[in-house]
Design brief:
The chain is an all-alpha fold. The chain has 3 domains: 1-192, Up-down Bundle (Growth Hormone, Chain: A); 196-242; 247-452, MFS general substrate transporter like domains (Growth Hormone, Chain: A). The protein contains 17 helices and no strands. The radius of gyration is 21 Å and the shape is globular.
Amino acid sequence: MPEKRTLLLLAGVLLASALAPLGSTSIAVAMPQIAQFMEMDPGTTTQLLVGGYLLISVIGQAPAGKLGDIIGYQKALYIGLGVFMLGSLMAYLIRSIEILLVSRMMMAAASAMIVPNASAMLRTQLPESMLPFAYGVFGATMGAAAAVGPLLGGALTQFFDWPAIFLVNVPWALIALGLIVFTSRPQTEKPKGRLDLRSTVLLAFAIGALQLGFIGDSIDFRFLFPGLILLAVFVWLQLTVDEPVFNPRFFRRPAYLAAGCTTALGNFTMYALLFQLPIFFVDVRDVAEIEIASALTAMTLCMMLGGPMSAIAGRLIGIRYTAVFAACANLFGLYLYSDLESALVPLDIMLPMALMGFAIGMSGPVVQAAGMLAIEKEYAGMAAGGLSTMRYFGGAIGISVLSLQLGSDTVTSLEQHLSVIPYYAGALITVLLVAFLLPVSNNKGDPSVGIQ
């Protein structure tokens, strides 16, 4: 049984990490009111406040992880939580369009600082035997926060007003900060290295161009090709500089490669599903939004159940076969989900959503723990930044692919929703294949054995 300090530290890290997905989704329900306040159309408002938030979050993950390696993960996490609180207070207290935009950018940059350094703190502060469980709850918390965000935002907007969505972040962040301050061990390592601003700017332009390439009704190759070229230049530059923002050589280690692919493709599927279900049931089945919450809740609750089961399965059948089993369960859940034609109410889709949620929750912990343990502790921030970038980028591309398939019609059709399923299948089959890159077994449930 882990000691009390360890559990309280884990609770603080989880509360901190949940702020990032909550910040991206809790604002969704309040968009009409905020658009009216900003005197803009809802589409433009969403692009500015949600799309901009996600873009800055994706761009900031790798540099923030590297910064944590330099100044310490605790300091980086404290900075992230402080800036997040400041941005939230500004949005609540100052009712100005300009301040609202600035505050959202501050919150996005802060969330980028929080997530990789929270993950790195788990790697450096918790016992290695506890990491599969910790990363399981970590991943489930991120997914659950993203799904619960609209419900929380809707309740706050209904009972108070849309600025309350920002105010609730302040006590939340203060509790997380207090738990981490009083339970984490001091980091005695001296600052090391420096942040390469040239590489950081290049990565920002590469990711920005790639994101722009997937916005709209069709792929925009005017942005996609330059984005791919800039990304290739970034990778080449990281292989030649002494202080890379992210070291691409990490992907030479099979466990880290498997963790990166699983994280990106798992979030590709999960985030697309979270956004597809409400659209499907509202457009095709004329079901009220509140009724859809049951299917989403089933998915996120089972994700949280799958996390602890991951550690148990890892000890019994090993890392590789835990990941393989979870990937097969995910594919079976997708097979059940593919019968959308028979899904008349959300209850009809609850079983496949629960199964896929459980599979995502079960695969994430052992795979991420194995990936993080494949990298030396002194590079934990950079390693976590790379995985966080792939998590956010996978989710963003999943939503973009969903948008491309559903088109720009006011009301979507069953055929359009069915056309997305082959993309999910391709992503999950790839997850199954990369699971075989993981070590077969381990000693005493320690996922670091055999990962060099």
